[in-house]
Amino acid sequence: MHAIPFYPCKRHDVSSSQDLFCSMALGMASPFNNYGFAFLLLAASGASAVSSVSTGFHGLQVAVVTGGASDIGYALAKKCLRSGVHVVLSDGHAGRLDSAADALQTEAAAGGCRLERFVADVRREEDMQRLLKCCTNAFGRVDLFFNNAGVIGEPNKGVLDTSLTSWRWVLDTNVMGLLNGMHTFVPAMQAQGTEAHIVNTASGAGVYSQERPTMIPYVALKHCAVVLTHAMRRELESTQSTVIPHLLCPSVVATPPIQTSRHYQAQAQGKEQHELGDMDEVSEAFHRRLHDDGMEPDQVADLVFKAVREKQFLIKPHPELPELEIHWSKRPR
Questions:
Q1: In 216-331, which ranges are E strands?
Q2: In this structure, what CATH number is given to the domain that contains residue 130?
Q3: Most CB atoms within 10 A, among 45, 145, 166, 178?
């Protein structure tokens, strides 16, 4: 196996009507819509599209991270680079993505890795397909897919006082976005024929019973993410797939998800963020709790990589979750 040169992905803005054309690792425009065929062609040629400079993480050399411009996604990307794994960093916010990618360049250089950036809205299936094409054109493969993008919605709202517009926004991001990632990346990773991993980010709120009347869209749809990931695990195991799934369920993490979500909330409503006004008291209190009591995102990333190494399905950074937890990983097959 010999290394072949990289060609960076062109930056793609989902608001543009122009399509993305990344350079192939072979230096040509990709003619392939069937990603599995592209993988097979690379394998048949004896070529490896990953650089020999990077050592990788237990044989895993290329990662894609959605929601990678901040919070847990940013920490996962940083952990990848520190572990010698090339990264395609993706986010729906172009400005934040550029800032995050620029900040990670030092980590990439230190780890001997390449870092690509790609603007993608996980709610759009075509964006996820372009994201995959960007990665395969640049690196020839995907070994780790962090299906991480998500929004928290409006923490002060319940079932009835959350508008249907807001429900659809959270649903499209936290469920359909997750499914778009699964449907796009899992078949491509399976076609490689080598070990690969998908990590779906859900939440501690998705594995225990809901006692409060607020934050209902987020909690309900994180329960859905847990069920979907559990079902995918059984499906992959039944076919002896080379793709290993993981379910990440963090609880209180020192991140600003409300601030991040407000950008997308405004976008969903066709407004500027400042038009949303000040945060309500419930959101302010939740924001303070995360800041004051939350686990650092880097700690979560460390636990994720430990789980990947050990092929552990359920990743629960906070073992003190309530007793009413659903023990998915212990249920009989």
A1: 243-248, 314-315
A2: 3.40.50.720
A3: 145
